[in-house]
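Chapter review: from sequence to fold.
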Amino acid sequence: MTTGLEGTANGTAGASEARGAEAPGAPHAGQALATVVAPAANVPAGTGSASAGSQSAAPPHLHIPLRSTRRDTLLCVVLALACLALYLLPTGFENRLPDNAVRCRATVESVDNDRVHQYGIVRMGTQYVTLRALDGPYAGQTWQAGNELVGKMELDKVFAPGDTALLVLTLRDGKVADAVAQDHYRLHTQALAFGVFALLLVAFAGPTGVKALLSFVFSALMIWKVLVPALLRDVDPILLGLGVTTAITAATILLVGGMNRRGLAAWLGTLLGIAATCGLALAFAGPFQLHGAVRPYAETVLYSGYPHLHMTRIFLASIFMASSGALMDLAMDVAASMAELAAQNPGISRRAALASGLRVGRAVVGTMTTTLLLAYSGGYIATLMLFMAQGIPLENALNLPFVAAEVMNTLVGSIGLVTVAPLTALTGTWLLVRGGLAHEKL
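The token string follows.
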């Protein structure tokens, strides 16, 4: 007797032959796919007639439904509730904020630059700014605030009439005792940019865009509400980083890719790639001889009352966390390709599916490694310009600690990308193809 799965395989083969008979000279998807993978595994003898009888009940080919299933909807609800819980979750560091300070938007009425001195391209001195509060309990009231310029362009801000600033008012005995123009007010612009991003994402991807947006918010909340406070509490950075990336990758892949074998294969491949990248970071930590303080503001954190933090382990954790996004992309590419391959060729063998997954991985991994290089080096363009302008030899530059840190970041992440492709191909072969036949429920 022919099993339902075998009948489906034969039915698919029969449908392919029928298409070939209709247009013998015309190429079609089956021919293009045949150039990449081996032919379907041989079906046991005696199944041909049975499959012919059940061909009407078998679909012409299997496919992965694009519509959300009940499990996907349930996951969306769970993650939405998780986002709400994370948003309401206290970090434990709220008491560090002064309770006698009021923050509000303010417009700059006028400025006094008499005590600002120009030294070449930098300014030093005190700029006095007159501001009028736009919201909060003191809306409409005007104060004069001092704006200290220390001669560092990356830290100094210069106001002009009409600018909108973040005004911080310090209260004493219920009255405003001091006013500080903290910086230019950028929250509205940031909210506008996020709104454009969300609108375009949902307009282009529809329900999948909504899921991607939900996973984006969940990832941001996990970093700010879980990762950062736990690091300040001296939780082991490596274990913490692995836990946070596991949760973020699960939410992203299973939410966007679906709670199915395809999503599970991509997630497992990503986890294996993250584990490999973590191991590589730990292995290269000694030979590179880098301290975690090479990261911006890392030393400032140590001087802010946290000298016990292990900045080197935090730096190593940041390596595999930073590359986890690219690992997810590559794993999903390979898993989705193998899932579609298994759907179109239900009788494909494990060896053929694995070979196809590896071919897809080879095609994608080259561009992904370049993506990491561009992403990491983009933030250091000015540094590279400085090296070239001052004639610093490349050998000297590559041995500088902060340059070597970026080299290690890029190379370790790229090696992790190379490993995630075959690992995902293996998990995809195991989950999507078993016993020589593709799973019907993908």
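Two observations follow directly from the output. The radius of gyration is 29 Å. The mean pLDDT is 83.
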